[in-house]
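Technical note accompanying the year-one report. For the benefit of new consortium partners, we illustrate the data format agreed upon in the data management plan: each record pairs a sequence with a structure-token string. No post-processing was applied to the example shown here.
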Amino acid sequence: MTLPLLSRPVLDDLGGVIGAEKLRRLIVRFTDSLRTAFPAGSRAPGEIAREAHTLISMSGMLGCERLSTACRALEAEAKDGADLAPALAEIRALRDETVRALEDVAQTS
């Protein structure tokens, strides 16, 4: 089963609780921080694991199910000492796709 890039029902539910404007601001702040996540270059596996861990809950809360799941897998791989190059390439592409999708949501909210 392929997880959705964004779960619109999750975003709608959150917007119903906190209001459309607060949701839009939250999305903008999250996309701003997401743009700088997992930068190119050499980093220690522990740093990568911490960054992935930080993004798991926020991405899940905003309905970014595929990103949240990928961050959980990356965190585990980093802790296990796996070769992170393939996972980082995949998560960077997913990061960029998620940012674009969230920007579309923020513009229509």
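Partners are asked to follow this layout when depositing records. The chain has a mean pLDDT of 94.
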